[in-house]
Amino acid sequence: MIDWQISDAPVSYPDSLARMERIAEGIRAGTHGETVWLLEHPPLYTAGTSADRADLVDPDRFPVFEARRGGQYTYHGPGQRVAYVMLDVAARGRDVRRFVHNLEAWVIATLAEFNVTGEVREGRVGVWVQRPDKPLGPNGELSEDKIAAIGIRLRKWVSFHGLSINVDPDLSHFDGIVPCGIRDHGVTSLVDLGLPVGMNDVDVALRRGFDQVFG
User: Fold this and answer.
1) Tell me, what's the pLDDT at 180?
2) CB–CB of 139/79 below 8 Å?
3) How many CB atoms lie under 10 A from the CB of residue 7?
4) Residue 131: how many other CB atoms lie within 10 Å
5) Per DSSP, what are the bridge partners of residue 73?
6) Which residues are catalytic?
């Protein structure tokens, strides 16, 4: 059974790291069940292990934290649903690539609840949506915006960190970084796509999508 936890008030980044550590240690020790923690953060930037300092465009805009997860720079803030997953990947087959694929599939299943088609792209981390309402790209291709970020860390086969879905954040806050090092595409949210979706709606969809993908 998955222990689903929801924090109603924004959680500071250091506090979230400490809590993830405690839960993961409990999973390794057999004293805590697998956990999915849903929360929001105050406005902040996180730097993954592959972060390029040049992608931190406005370093003084919000606090910047070393995340110790894979990936590059990411924004977190109000209106964005963060889902931290502390799962026993050893018990789930010890296949890291498959685990990341399942996280992507989970996001895609969640977005499908709102009739949004999420897609993954080779060489571009996260989940993307096509924007036929925007101008075509230089090669005549449809514009695409990022709607969800994914970044994990494993220690002794227990996962940390997870994913974030843009529900209704202030999209201008992404301007202080080059999100995930990708300069040629933008970011969007469910509300930006014209959907009157709230955080509770997304939480329900996340639980259904998790059950579909992870069983």
Assistant:
1) 67
2) no
3) 15
4) 17
5) 47
6) 180
Q: Which of 39-43, 69-73, 113-117, 197-201 has the lowest mean pLDDT?
A: 69-73
Paired tokens of 22: 């405690």
* CA–CA gap between residue 103 and residue 169 (Å, rounded): 21
Asked if residues 35 and 1 have their Cβ atoms less than 8 Å apart, the reply is no
Task: Please report how many Cα atoms fall inside a 13 Å half-sphere around the Cα of residue 212, on the Cβ side.
Answer: 17
Instruction: Report the 10 Å Cβ neighbour count for 193.
Output: 18
Q: Is the pTM of this model over 0.70?
A: yes
- Residue 31 one-letter amino acid: T
CA angle 193, 194, 198 (to 5 degrees): 95
Whether the Cβ atoms of residue 144 and residue 131 lie closer than 8 Å to each other: yes
Report the SS3 class of residue 140: coil
Q: Mean pLDDT in the chain?
A: 95
The structure tokens 């695409």 sit at: 144
Q: How far is CA 56 from CA 34, 75, 116, in A?
A: 34, 11, 30
Cross-strand pairs, 121: 124
Rounded distance between C-alpha atoms, residue 203 and residue 6, angstroms: 9
Q: What is the pLDDT of residue 183?
A: 76
